[in-house]
Amino acid sequence: MSESSGRPLDVLEAAVGEDVTVKLKDGESYEGELTGYDQHMNLVLEQDDNTTIIRGDNVVSISP
User: Fold this and answer.
1) 3-class SS at 14?
2) What is the mean pLDDT of the chain?
């Protein structure tokens, strides 16, 4: 991921097109390419032929 201002949406914008690991409140984690997000930090991950949509209020961390 490239360096950004540190604001959450700027960090997400810099991560679009990158492979990320998303950890959730319940302990689950998802890996895939971040292909989209919205102002609520809802995320869209693509892995192989699967698309996963994750509600932003469940996200604990996003890492490369």
Assistant:
1) helix
2) 90
